[in-house]
Amino acid sequence: MPLEIRSDQRSRGRRVASACTRPPRGSDDSAAEPPLPSVQWFAAVRRAALRWFARHGRDLPWRRSNDAYAVLVSELMLQQTTVATVAPRWQQFLATFPTVEHLARADESEVLRAWEGLGYYRRAKQLHAAAQRIVADHAGNVPDDPATLAELPGLGRYSASAVLCFARGRSLPIVEANTRRLWARLLGFRAEANSPEADRMFWAAAERIVRRSRSPRQINLALMDLGALVCRPRQPQCDRCPLVAHCAAWAQGLQKELPRKRTPVVLQPRHEAAVVIHRGSKVLLVRYGETGQWSGLWDFPRVLLTDHCDPPTAETVGKQVDELLDCLLGERTDDCRQSDGDRRSDRPARRIVVERHLARWNHRVTRFQITLDCFTAQWIADRDGDRFAAESLTERAASEDTRPDAGTHSGRDERLSLGHPCAMAWVERDALADYPLPSTARRLARLYFSAERREIPGKSNESSPIAAAKRATASDRRQRGS
Predict the structure, then answer these.
(1) CA of 66: how far to CAs of 163, 168, 349, in Å?
(2) Could you say which of 33, 75, 315, 455 is catalytic?
(3) Mean pLDDT of the chain
(4) Per-residue pLDDT tens for 152-168?
(5) pTM for this structure?
(6) Do 3-251 and 268-481 have matching folds?
(7) Eight-state DSSP code of residue 398
């Protein structure tokens, strides 16, 4: 780009920045309507963005649909999830639930299973609830009023505008992560990009640019793609940007400093253990209730480690999992802090014995940085009348798993507690596909069964920890019988 052209563009960018950041004379900055560039500026941005989009816009599967339900599914999936992850899963989800009526009639566990791998499972529950509301209150038709649509579970102003704009061509503004970053740079907005002032300015700009557009759908998509592909969070591609001549941040050399973000959240470290408990050819799964980290999902028994031993010992993990199992069977108080002397006398000395450590993984869930140690264990507590010896166990009363303090073990901080499981089942390997699992549990299942195939069966070792634990359990039963 010639030097004289760059100089002229930077000069225009400075004028835009000045107009956008200076409040009207004699007005209250906090209450004033955000100042915006001229109508001509918006028209020039719109023309340049549409020309670029015609050549470089992304061809995404949900953009080929004008079905409001299908677009609604894509918008809920895309919240906090990448396009690359959503693209194949969106089509699979619609193949399972092709209409809003199919989704509304489905059991929540089916919806969670179809959502598996997308994370943030609360969105799946909200989508399910929204479908039920659409069927019950709107005769199965996605509402055409953006305010009504925004009131459905999981939706807000952006999602409602996106569904009606993309599916029905409504002239509605859109502000999401990519366009928020784009507007912050174009307008040279120097305050925090997630502040109320930023919301007022960015939504006002988005309204202005679609107001006189003959193709509101195309301009909204163009701005989103420019934010995703060109005006990127790091290393913005200003040399490829069709809007560089209108960009205040580029004119002032602030494209890498804007948008200004909040102080990053410091992740809290957390140490958990997940245990594959096997009994014959089956493994034990537990289902969490409506509170806690994995609400509504099935999982291998998982505990938040209370001591600071690293790596955790088999004895430590076994003790805490035994304590969890006591809670599930109702043989200790719900908060799992009853003294050993108060335990029921007919419970086995031990229910499991931990065999070996399988893996250690690190992953992030919301505000936590989790270290997850994975173990295998054998169930050794089968006895006549033991409820756990049944092939499956029914759910306990819902009231037992919905209290905020349910599932707090050994006096741990309630804020860090895992959800309290309310149902359990012994499951064959082939049946695991029918259960909605967190991604770590699905990964652990694959690891466990692949390791199991590699093992060579041999004679039982009478001196092994498992054999010793079984002998201790049998001795305990004989003493109770006498």
Answers:
(1) 9, 7, 62
(2) 75
(3) 81
(4) 999 999 999 999 999 99
(5) 0.76
(6) no
(7) G
